[in-house]
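Throughout this chapter, every protein is written as a compact record of paired, labelled lines. The reader may check this reading against the record printed directly beneath this paragraph:
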Amino acid sequence: MTADDGTADDNEPDHLYRIDITSDSNAHVYMEKVFDEAIKQGEIEGLCVDPSTGDLLVHMNRGARIVLGMGKGFYPGYTEEVHEIYRYSMEAKQPPRR
């Protein structure tokens, strides 16, 4: 699950969380990745898996100031919002022990 939980004005990155679904009533959530590849991200829009490679694809937008979900101009150095797809190799990880 991606989360637009960083504050771009403070150069804080967004995150990827892994959910360990082991029952019908609750699930444990683990922070899997910090998206520090892009500055002034603004938003992590979504993710999917490339069926031909198994790679994780993440859509990121940067450059536009987003305030309460609304575009409010651009950060210095940007004249438009930049849309990019980042590719990550997926590796199986063991969940942390509780």
Notes: The longest strand covers residues 27-35.
